Protein backbone atom coordinates (compact mmCIF):
# COMPACT_ATOMS: atom_id res chain seq x y z
CA UNK A 1 0.00 0.00 0.00
CA UNK A 2 1.45 3.36 -1.03
CA UNK A 3 1.94 5.99 1.76
CA UNK A 4 0.82 9.59 1.25
CA UNK A 5 2.23 12.78 2.88
CA UNK A 6 -0.62 12.75 5.37
CA UNK A 7 0.37 9.27 6.58
CA UNK A 8 3.96 10.36 7.54
CA UNK A 9 4.52 11.24 11.21
CA UNK A 10 4.70 15.01 11.84
CA UNK A 11 8.17 16.42 12.65
CA UNK A 12 8.49 17.93 16.09
CA UNK A 13 8.57 21.76 16.00
CA UNK A 14 12.02 23.19 16.85
CA UNK A 15 11.47 25.32 19.95
CA UNK A 16 15.17 25.63 20.85
CA UNK A 17 17.01 28.82 21.81
CA UNK A 18 18.22 29.50 18.25
CA UNK A 19 14.70 29.32 16.79
CA UNK A 20 13.24 31.55 19.49
CA UNK A 21 16.10 34.06 19.00
CA UNK A 22 15.61 34.09 15.23
CA UNK A 23 11.91 34.85 15.68
CA UNK A 24 12.49 37.66 18.18
CA UNK A 25 13.52 40.75 16.18
CA UNK A 26 14.29 42.73 19.32
CA UNK A 27 16.88 40.30 20.72
CA UNK A 28 18.19 39.29 17.29
CA UNK A 29 19.07 42.94 16.61
CA UNK A 30 20.88 43.23 19.93
CA UNK A 31 22.86 40.04 19.30
CA UNK A 32 23.93 41.20 15.83
CA UNK A 33 25.02 44.59 17.17
CA UNK A 34 26.98 43.05 20.04
CA UNK A 35 30.26 42.43 18.06
CA UNK A 36 30.35 46.02 16.83
CA UNK A 37 29.64 47.39 20.31
CA UNK A 38 32.30 45.12 21.82
CA UNK A 39 34.79 46.29 19.22
CA UNK A 40 34.07 49.97 19.92
CA UNK A 41 34.26 49.53 23.69
CA UNK A 42 37.46 47.44 23.61
CA UNK A 43 39.46 49.35 20.99
CA UNK A 44 38.11 52.90 21.34
CA UNK A 45 36.30 53.30 24.64
CA UNK A 46 38.86 51.60 26.89
CA UNK A 47 41.93 53.47 25.50
CA UNK A 48 40.02 56.76 25.75
CA UNK A 49 39.11 56.12 29.39
CA UNK A 50 42.69 55.05 30.11
CA UNK A 51 43.99 58.28 28.55
CA UNK A 52 41.56 60.30 30.68
CA UNK A 53 42.82 58.50 33.78
CA UNK A 54 46.49 58.98 32.84
CA UNK A 55 45.99 62.68 32.12
CA UNK A 56 45.06 63.42 35.75
CA UNK A 57 47.72 61.21 37.31
CA UNK A 58 51.51 61.17 37.68
CA UNK A 59 51.93 57.80 35.97
CA UNK A 60 55.20 57.30 34.11
CA UNK A 61 56.74 54.51 32.06
CA UNK A 62 57.99 51.82 34.45
CA UNK A 63 56.29 53.28 37.56
CA UNK A 64 55.02 50.80 40.11
CA UNK A 65 51.94 50.94 42.27
CA UNK A 66 48.78 53.01 41.89
CA UNK A 67 49.54 56.48 40.45
CA UNK A 68 48.66 59.61 42.42
CA UNK A 69 45.92 62.03 41.39
CA UNK A 70 47.40 65.36 40.23
CA UNK A 71 44.26 67.08 38.94
CA UNK A 72 44.85 69.39 35.97
CA UNK A 73 48.58 69.73 36.54
CA UNK A 74 49.45 67.82 33.36
CA UNK A 75 47.22 70.11 31.29
CA UNK A 76 48.80 73.22 32.84
CA UNK A 77 52.27 71.84 32.15
CA UNK A 78 51.29 71.09 28.55
CA UNK A 79 50.02 74.64 27.97
CA UNK A 80 53.14 76.04 29.65
CA UNK A 81 55.41 73.99 27.38
CA UNK A 82 56.90 76.37 24.73
CA UNK A 83 56.56 73.61 22.13
CA UNK A 84 52.80 73.28 22.68
CA UNK A 85 51.50 76.47 20.96
CA UNK A 86 53.78 75.83 18.00
CA UNK A 87 52.58 72.23 17.76
CA UNK A 88 48.96 73.38 17.92
CA UNK A 89 49.55 75.92 15.13
CA UNK A 90 51.43 73.34 13.04
CA UNK A 91 48.57 70.87 13.53
CA UNK A 92 46.05 73.38 12.17
CA UNK A 93 48.28 74.32 9.21
CA UNK A 94 49.07 70.69 8.43
CA UNK A 95 45.40 69.61 8.56
CA UNK A 96 43.81 72.57 6.75
CA UNK A 97 46.37 72.93 3.95
CA UNK A 98 46.55 69.20 3.26
CA UNK A 99 42.76 68.85 3.17
CA UNK A 100 42.47 71.84 0.84
CA UNK A 101 44.72 70.17 -1.72
CA UNK A 102 43.26 66.70 -1.13
CA UNK A 103 39.71 67.83 -1.89
CA UNK A 104 40.68 69.81 -5.00
CA UNK A 105 42.86 67.06 -6.47
CA UNK A 106 40.39 64.31 -5.54
CA UNK A 107 37.56 66.19 -7.28
CA UNK A 108 39.64 66.58 -10.45
CA UNK A 109 40.67 62.92 -10.38
CA UNK A 110 37.17 61.62 -9.68
CA UNK A 111 35.64 63.61 -12.52
CA UNK A 112 38.43 62.51 -14.87
CA UNK A 113 38.06 58.84 -13.93
CA UNK A 114 34.37 58.97 -14.75
CA UNK A 115 35.21 59.37 -18.40
CA UNK A 116 36.06 56.41 -20.59
CA UNK A 117 39.63 56.26 -21.87
CA UNK A 118 42.23 53.68 -22.70
CA UNK A 119 44.17 52.33 -19.72
CA UNK A 120 41.61 53.58 -17.24
CA UNK A 121 42.04 50.57 -14.93
CA UNK A 122 45.82 51.14 -14.82
CA UNK A 123 45.29 54.74 -13.74
CA UNK A 124 42.83 53.62 -11.05
CA UNK A 125 45.33 51.04 -9.79
CA UNK A 126 48.13 53.61 -9.63
CA UNK A 127 45.92 56.01 -7.69
CA UNK A 128 44.95 53.33 -5.18
CA UNK A 129 48.53 52.14 -4.58
CA UNK A 130 49.41 54.81 -1.96
CA UNK A 131 46.38 53.75 0.07
CA UNK A 132 46.90 49.99 -0.05
CA UNK A 133 50.66 50.15 0.60
CA UNK A 134 51.86 50.43 4.22
CA UNK A 135 52.24 54.10 5.02
CA UNK A 136 55.54 53.53 6.83
CA UNK A 137 56.96 51.92 3.67
CA UNK A 138 55.74 54.77 1.48
CA UNK A 139 57.14 57.35 3.90
CA UNK A 140 60.56 55.67 3.83
CA UNK A 141 60.46 55.94 0.03
CA UNK A 142 59.71 59.65 0.31
CA UNK A 143 62.51 59.97 2.89
CA UNK A 144 64.96 58.81 0.22
CA UNK A 145 63.43 61.15 -2.36
CA UNK A 146 63.92 64.08 0.05
CA UNK A 147 67.42 63.03 1.07
CA UNK A 148 69.86 65.92 1.27
CA UNK A 149 72.47 64.10 -0.89
CA UNK A 150 70.70 61.45 -2.96
CA UNK A 151 67.39 63.24 -3.56
CA UNK A 152 66.05 62.09 -6.90
CA UNK A 153 64.02 65.30 -7.06
CA UNK A 154 67.14 67.46 -6.84
CA UNK A 155 69.18 65.41 -9.28
CA UNK A 156 66.29 65.32 -11.78
CA UNK A 157 65.70 69.05 -11.38
CA UNK A 158 69.36 69.79 -12.01
CA UNK A 159 69.49 67.47 -15.02
CA UNK A 160 66.48 69.23 -16.54
CA UNK A 161 67.90 72.65 -15.79
CA UNK A 162 65.18 73.54 -13.27
CA UNK A 163 67.70 73.90 -10.45
CA UNK A 164 70.72 76.04 -11.11
CA UNK A 165 74.31 75.22 -10.27
CA UNK A 166 74.03 76.74 -6.79
CA UNK A 167 70.49 75.55 -6.07
CA UNK A 168 70.16 72.43 -3.96
CA UNK A 169 67.03 72.42 -1.75
CA UNK A 170 67.34 70.66 1.59
CA UNK A 171 63.75 69.45 1.68
CA UNK A 172 63.67 68.19 5.26
CA UNK A 173 66.25 70.57 6.70
CA UNK A 174 64.66 73.95 5.99
CA UNK A 175 61.52 74.88 8.00
CA UNK A 176 59.27 75.96 5.11
CA UNK A 177 60.40 73.17 2.80
CA UNK A 178 60.04 70.60 5.60
CA UNK A 179 56.42 71.58 6.28
CA UNK A 180 55.70 71.59 2.54
CA UNK A 181 57.29 68.15 2.22
CA UNK A 182 55.25 66.50 5.00
CA UNK A 183 52.06 68.10 3.65
CA UNK A 184 52.88 66.78 0.16
CA UNK A 185 53.36 63.24 1.43
CA UNK A 186 50.16 63.44 3.49
CA UNK A 187 48.21 64.63 0.42
CA UNK A 188 49.74 61.75 -1.57
CA UNK A 189 48.58 59.33 1.10
CA UNK A 190 44.98 60.58 1.53
CA UNK A 191 44.22 61.35 -2.11
CA UNK A 192 43.13 57.77 -3.00
CA UNK A 193 40.58 57.59 -0.17
CA UNK A 194 39.00 60.93 -1.04
CA UNK A 195 38.98 60.05 -4.76
CA UNK A 196 37.22 56.73 -4.19
CA UNK A 197 34.60 58.36 -1.94
CA UNK A 198 33.93 61.11 -4.50
CA UNK A 199 33.78 58.56 -7.32
CA UNK A 200 31.05 56.76 -5.40
CA UNK A 201 29.14 60.02 -5.03
CA UNK A 202 29.49 60.92 -8.70
CA UNK A 203 28.39 57.44 -9.78
CA UNK A 204 25.23 57.83 -7.69
CA UNK A 205 24.00 60.85 -9.68
CA UNK A 206 21.25 59.65 -12.07
CA UNK A 207 22.24 59.92 -15.73
CA UNK A 208 18.85 61.47 -16.50
CA UNK A 209 19.89 64.63 -14.67
CA UNK A 210 23.01 65.01 -16.81
CA UNK A 211 20.99 64.36 -19.97
CA UNK A 212 18.37 66.95 -18.97
CA UNK A 213 21.07 69.53 -18.29
CA UNK A 214 22.62 68.83 -21.68
CA UNK A 215 19.26 69.26 -23.38
CA UNK A 216 18.80 72.59 -21.57
CA UNK A 217 22.12 73.73 -23.01
CA UNK A 218 24.05 73.90 -19.73
CA UNK A 219 27.75 74.59 -20.26
CA UNK A 220 30.61 72.82 -18.51
CA UNK A 221 30.90 75.29 -15.62
CA UNK A 222 27.14 75.57 -15.10
CA UNK A 223 26.80 71.82 -15.27
CA UNK A 224 29.55 71.35 -12.70
CA UNK A 225 28.65 74.07 -10.17
CA UNK A 226 24.84 73.91 -10.41
CA UNK A 227 24.34 70.16 -10.76
CA UNK A 228 27.38 68.05 -9.91
CA UNK A 229 28.68 69.98 -6.90
CA UNK A 230 25.32 70.29 -5.04
CA UNK A 231 24.52 66.61 -5.58
CA UNK A 232 27.93 65.33 -4.54
CA UNK A 233 28.41 67.77 -1.63
CA UNK A 234 27.12 65.46 1.16
CA UNK A 235 29.50 62.65 0.19
CA UNK A 236 32.32 65.19 -0.30
CA UNK A 237 31.80 66.39 3.27
CA UNK A 238 32.13 62.79 4.48
CA UNK A 239 35.46 62.55 2.64
CA UNK A 240 36.48 65.85 4.22
CA UNK A 241 35.57 64.52 7.68
CA UNK A 242 37.64 61.35 7.25
CA UNK A 243 40.57 63.33 5.90
CA UNK A 244 40.41 65.87 8.71
CA UNK A 245 40.41 63.17 11.38
CA UNK A 246 43.41 61.48 9.73
CA UNK A 247 45.27 64.77 9.39
CA UNK A 248 44.78 65.69 13.06
CA UNK A 249 45.61 62.28 14.52
CA UNK A 250 48.14 60.63 12.20
CA UNK A 251 51.81 60.98 13.10
CA UNK A 252 53.52 58.38 10.91
CA UNK A 253 54.46 60.71 8.05
CA UNK A 254 56.00 63.35 10.32
CA UNK A 255 57.64 60.76 12.57
CA UNK A 256 59.37 59.05 9.64
CA UNK A 257 60.34 62.17 7.70
CA UNK A 258 61.27 64.87 10.21
CA UNK A 259 60.46 63.70 13.77
CA UNK A 260 59.07 67.18 14.34
CA UNK A 261 62.18 69.01 13.13
CA UNK A 262 63.92 71.11 12.11
CA UNK A 263 63.64 73.19 15.30
CA UNK A 264 60.10 71.93 16.06
CA UNK A 265 58.78 73.52 12.86
CA UNK A 266 56.88 70.37 11.85
CA UNK A 267 55.98 69.26 15.35
CA UNK A 268 52.23 68.56 15.66
CA UNK A 269 50.19 67.59 18.71
CA UNK A 270 50.18 63.88 17.92
CA UNK A 271 53.99 63.67 17.63
CA UNK A 272 54.48 65.93 20.66
CA UNK A 273 52.22 63.63 22.70
CA UNK A 274 54.19 60.59 21.50
CA UNK A 275 57.60 62.08 22.26
CA UNK A 276 56.42 63.29 25.69
CA UNK A 277 54.52 60.17 26.72
CA UNK A 278 56.48 57.32 25.12
CA UNK A 279 59.99 58.59 24.37
CA UNK A 280 60.03 60.88 27.41
CA UNK A 281 58.31 58.38 29.71
CA UNK A 282 55.76 60.93 31.01
CA UNK A 283 52.55 59.04 30.22
CA UNK A 284 50.38 61.53 32.10
CA UNK A 285 51.83 64.51 30.22
CA UNK A 286 51.56 62.72 26.87
CA UNK A 287 47.93 61.79 27.54
CA UNK A 288 47.09 65.38 28.48
CA UNK A 289 48.58 66.69 25.20
CA UNK A 290 46.74 64.05 23.17
CA UNK A 291 43.42 64.92 24.81
CA UNK A 292 43.65 68.48 23.49
CA UNK A 293 42.79 66.95 20.12
CA UNK A 294 39.51 65.50 21.38
CA UNK A 295 37.41 68.72 21.57
CA UNK A 296 38.89 69.96 18.29
CA UNK A 297 37.97 66.74 16.48
CA UNK A 298 34.56 66.54 18.13
CA UNK A 299 33.73 70.10 17.04
CA UNK A 300 34.94 69.38 13.47
CA UNK A 301 32.87 66.20 13.29
CA UNK A 302 29.71 67.91 14.54
CA UNK A 303 30.08 70.85 12.13
CA UNK A 304 30.86 68.73 9.08
CA UNK A 305 28.05 66.25 9.78
CA UNK A 306 25.62 69.14 10.28
CA UNK A 307 26.64 70.67 6.95
CA UNK A 308 26.35 67.25 5.31
CA UNK A 309 22.79 66.85 6.61
CA UNK A 310 21.83 70.33 5.42
CA UNK A 311 23.33 69.59 2.00
CA UNK A 312 21.39 66.38 1.50
CA UNK A 313 19.18 66.48 -1.56
CA UNK A 314 15.71 65.08 -0.89
**Helical percent range?**
over 70%
Rg, nearest Å: 27 Å
| Secondary-structure-derived class | mainly alpha
* Total beta strands: 0
Order of helix and strand elements from N to C terminus = HHHHHHHHHHHHHH
Largest sheet: none
Total DSSP helices: 14
Question: What descriptors fit this protein?
Answer:
314 residues, mainly alpha
Explained architecture:
The protein has 314 residues and is an all-alpha fold. It has 14 helices and no strands. The chain starts with 16 loop residues before the first helix and ends with a helix.
Short précis:
The protein has 314 residues and is mainly α. The protein has helices at residues 17-23, 25-55, 73-80, 83-114, 120-132, 135-145, 152-159, 175-203, 207-215, 220-249, 252-257, 269-279, 283-291, 293-311.
SSE map:
Layout: H1 17-23, H2 25-55, H3 73-80, H4 83-114, H5 120-132, H6 135-145, H7 152-159, H8 175-203, H9 207-215, H10 220-249, H11 252-257, H12 269-279, H13 283-291, H14 293-311
Amino acid sequence: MKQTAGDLPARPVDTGFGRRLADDEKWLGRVMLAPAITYIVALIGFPLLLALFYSVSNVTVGSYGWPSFVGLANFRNAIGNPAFPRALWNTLVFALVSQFFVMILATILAISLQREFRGKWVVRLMILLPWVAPISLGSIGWLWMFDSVYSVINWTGRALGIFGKDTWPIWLGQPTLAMGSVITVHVWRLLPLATVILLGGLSGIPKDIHDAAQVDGAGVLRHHFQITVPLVRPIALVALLFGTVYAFTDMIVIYVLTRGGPYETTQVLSTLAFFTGIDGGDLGGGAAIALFLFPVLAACAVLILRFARQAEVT
